[in-house]
Amino acid sequence: MAISFDAALGVQPQALSLRSQRTEVLANNIANSDTPKFQARDIPFKAMLDDAMTLTQTDAAASAMAQTRTGHLEGKPSALEESLLYRVPLMPAIDGNTVDIHTEQAAFAENSFQFQAAMQFLNGRFKGLMTAIKGE
C-alpha cells in the first residue's frame, strides 16, 4: 500500500513555506523601520494558505507566461508579490514611513511561534510514519 504524503502531512508543508515567506517580509519591514517613505507590508496568511491548498500544478503551469524572445524576462511576479498588502499604520511617521516597530516585532514573534508549532507537528507526523513503516 502506497503512502500519500499529501494526506499524511496535510496543510503543514504549505503553512511552513508561507510562514517562511512571511518571516522575510516582516524582517524587511523591521530592517527598513528608519527608511523614509518605506511602506510596511504583510502577507494575508489565511487567504494565501487557502490558495496554496486549492492550486494544482496544472493551474500553475497554465498561468505561467511564455518567453517569446531571448531578451525578455521570464515569468511573472510571484503569488507572494501579488498578494502582499500594505499595513495601515497606527501613527504614520512624518517622513512617510509606515513601519511601527512594535507591531512588526510582535508579528515577527507570533509568526516564529507558529512556524515552530508547525515544525513540531510535522516532526510528530514523520515519527508516526516511521513507526508505521517499521511496524512497531
Descriptive terms for the model:
single chain, 136 residues, mainly alpha, two-stranded antiparallel sheet, 6 helices, 2 strands, 60% helix, 3% strand, flat
What overall geometry do the principal axes of the alpha carbons give? flat
How do the SSEs run, as a string of H and E?
Answer: HHEHHHEH
Q: Give the helix proportion (percent range).
A: 55-70%
Continuous helix count: 6
Largest sheet: 2 strands, antiparallel
Strand content: under 5%
* Radius of gyration (Å): 19 Å
Q: Structural class of the secondary elements?
A: mainly alpha
- Cα-to-Cα separation, first versus last residue: 17 Å
Query: Which sequence of strands runs across the widest sheet?
Result: 1-2
* pLDDT averaged residue by residue: 81
Q: How many strand units?
A: 2
Structurally, the number of domains stands at 1
Unreliable stretches: 56-63
Q: What is the fold's blueprint, element by element?
A:
Layout: H1 5-9, H2 12-31, E1 41-42, H3 45-54, H4 57-63, H5 79-83, E2 85-86, H6 101-134
Antiparallel strand pairs: 1-2
Please, could you describe this protein's structure?
- It is a single chain.
- The chain has one domain (12-57, 74-134).
- 60% of the residues lie in helices and 3% in strands.
- It has helices spanning 5-9, 12-31, 45-54, 57-63, 79-83, 101-134, and strands at 41-42, 85-86.
- It has a two-stranded antiparallel sheet with strand order 1-2.
Structure described in brief:
This protein is mostly helical and 136 residues long. 60% of the residues lie in helices and 3% in strands.
